[in-house]
Amino acid sequence: MNRIARQPEVTQRLTVKLSDGAEVSVRRWGPARGRRVVLSHGNGLAADGFQDFGRALMQDFEVVAFDLRSHGENASVPQADMPWPRYIADIPEIFDAIAEGFGPRETHGAFHSMSSACTLVAQTKTPRPWASLTLFEPPIAPATEPGLVAEFNIIQHGLAERAAGRRRSFETPEELARSFARASTFAGIPPEAILQLARATLRDTGAGWELACRPEHEASNFDTAGMLSGHWHDFARITVPVQVILGDVAVHDMPLLTRFGQEMAGQFGFRAVTCPGTNHFMQLQKPEFCARQVAAFAQEAETARSREAADTNRETRDESTRGSAIGI
Known about the structure:
The protein has a single domain (10-327), classed as 3-Layer(aba) Sandwich (Rossmann fold), CATH 3.40.50. Strands 1-2-4-3-5-6-10-11 form an eight-stranded mixed beta sheet, with helices on both faces. Strands 7-9-8 form a three-stranded antiparallel beta sheet. The protein is built from ten helices and eleven strands. The chain is of the alpha/beta class. Helix 2 (84-102) packs across helix 3, helix 4 runs antiparallel to helix 7 (215-223) and helix 5 (173-182) crosses helix 6.
């Protein structure tokens, strides 16, 4: 495991200064296109770890990637005891900055885990004109199922304990990649993609490598994720097309997440799609399949909007015709 796959070309870079002073790195991979997809990552990780997925998306989109605050390329900033409200507030600010800095486009979202949860909740509070949202296993327990909420909280507290004790420094990215490869969570991910994820997750200090997201921040994000259930009923207000992509319960290391997605589909009309033979990291395990789901859903949403616009124009013409007839 000694070679990182060729990275997509960064053709434009933007540093977004958020309303609290924190800065977020945003970059465009590949050429500008007529429609855009924005992607981000899960807790403790970084957008550059999803480059194979990004490359697959380039067939249909302009691809823009960003790291959540205190992750990836971003400097670490102080974190509140309850960090999620700030992560959530960042999403519409980043959306606006992308539109201003890279130009307005039809914009779709393709978000994994933590970033998918933040985007979904943000859309209930400060909605933005996403053309569609494809969300890969948003970790939000349904408030309508208290047993699932309790089970989720127990799991998250366990993840928080492990994250808090995580080793922060490494001699090389290969060292972290070997650790990833031993974990069942990363089963089915090609070795080059695991090394790519490890490299993206680390920061070069000049004297070695360290996790870009501080272990105590990652732990807090896990430990407090139960608060997201408080926004569950608000999802009924979301009007943009949403689909959730779920791992395969037969091989999943945390099958509870698939249940959450199915509950979202049943209660709010979101589309739910299963990625066969994958777990929570389906974008790394089957990037082409996942990219096809994003593109197909985006096309379907675009077709539906065109049909709706045509129907509206037809109704307007009919009203005008009836008005002229009455005038005669």
